[in-house]
Amino acid sequence: MKRQRKDYRLNPSPIPLTGVPGSLVVNFLDPEGRPESKFDFSTFGTTPRVGAEIALAFRHHHAGHSPATRESAFHALRRWFVFLSDKNPTVTSMRDVDTAVLRAYIAWLDTKPWTKTSRHGTWSVLKQMVRWLKRNRPELVASDLEIPFNAFPRKNADTRPREALSRSEMEAVLSAARKDIEAIWSTFQTGKALLAQVDRQAIAKEKDLSRLDLDDLGVMLAVIVEHYGGLVPPQNVTLERGTGRWRLHFASLKHGGNQKLASYLHALPETLIPYMIAIGAQSYANPEALRELRRHCMSDHLLLDGREVMTWSKGRSNRAQRRSFLRDKSLSVPNLIDQVLEMTAPLLRHVPASDLDRLFLVASINGTRSIKLIPDYLMSKHVRFFAQRHSLVDDKGAPLALTLAALRTTGLTLAHEALGHDILKTQILANHASPDTTQRYIDRPIVRKAQERIIGDLQLRFVEAVRSPDDEDESDGDAPTAVTEYATAAGFICKDPLAGVGEGQKTGRLCTAWLGCFTCPNAVIPLDPDVLTRLLSTRDALVAARQSLAPDRWRLLYAPKLEILEHDILPRFSPELHMVASMNAAPALPVIE
Known about the structure:
47% helix, two-stranded antiparallel sheet, 11 strands, 22 helices, mainly alpha
């Protein structure tokens, strides 16, 4: 009886692993399983099937992205649905979307008064959704759908350079931040010392606050901590009729007001900004990534003693961002973060669960007492106030337009200078995936001048390397002549014929194009009359060989060399050198076969 073979094939799943489009609402959870964000595609007012299919792709593609990235993508998709309702109302599902519809959407975006970068970003969000459907649910899209390639070429060509500060402006900003940080930390430490000097337990048990000496700042701070959870009570609480808390209001005025009292107890928006400026200037973090720093962002370096590593997340990157720092200075990042941790610790009991692990927590004392992660609008406003308070000006004497975004650009530009204008090292420091991105950060006139100077120095060293200081003509002073150790038949020089840098060559083996290649990256052609004489002879020999060699052989082997010689190399010599070379005797050259 023939043995029956076991069938190891798996039955296809009747339910697609990526789900079935149906829901128009996409919910995301945080790592602890709590609701984090919600996106309702029904608000776009489109056909339910198109919205459900895009929602399916949105749910899976953005599952691992930050809330800010999801929010930005959701708003960009709104334009796609506006386009469908205005220009293609007959589209009822993504299968109705063909390449012509996508090209029409690109043309529609081109009609908008936006920058090319903004149009490209809007198109990229839709392209990601369509690509996800085509890869994971091909039955939901047209079988012949082709996604247009490079819809917005050279999207960054017209982009304005990122704003950056000069070195003197940056030094003025950090000097002002240092002054504020020292005053803020001193005030907070004073508050801690005053609280340690009073009997807080007795004050906590006292029900009648009129018996306490509220003129004593330590007693006043203890009342706020023990009776109001560490938050200065608002005016509508202290002046409420029939409560007898009016003495708190007038005592607060005597001690400098609610703002001053709060600065003894916890962080405020204006007290966090100098810390954010100092940390951002040293870490090169993006403003949003800086704002969302975690409380446990610092850790010991695994390999280097005395160094600590700051780790944070960037919305557009799946890689963790890291920089290491020493504690050798008062304004070093580890010391600054320790101070922020201490100043925001009294607020932890009041913040919502979603912000418990955030570093830059603030308590608003204007109106309602809102305790949460510092909002971005409040951060931008107080950065402007910081520049105005310290009367910061730019190099032209105008008020300095300071932003947190400029700190990253400025830091990378100055670091690029310190790294010898090595863009690859700067790319690693910035944690960019491409040096093109780094170039857009550091593309400044002062950087370009420095790069031109470095390139000029390298070119000078390159020329000096192929000239011999030992073969100087005594009658011509210090005019150098070309060395001939690695001279080719054409008269110019190869740095190293064994380097293997040419196409199809191997290191350690003699270049197969030795004595014949004009385009090798190792070739160095000194602007010398003798070299020009040999090149002119080579050109004449190549022209003469065209009459004697087989046409196919000449076209294959020698025509490219003659074209390079006539159109690229010889025009680089000045007319004066051509005049001198024409008077020299033509050297004997090998027969061209």
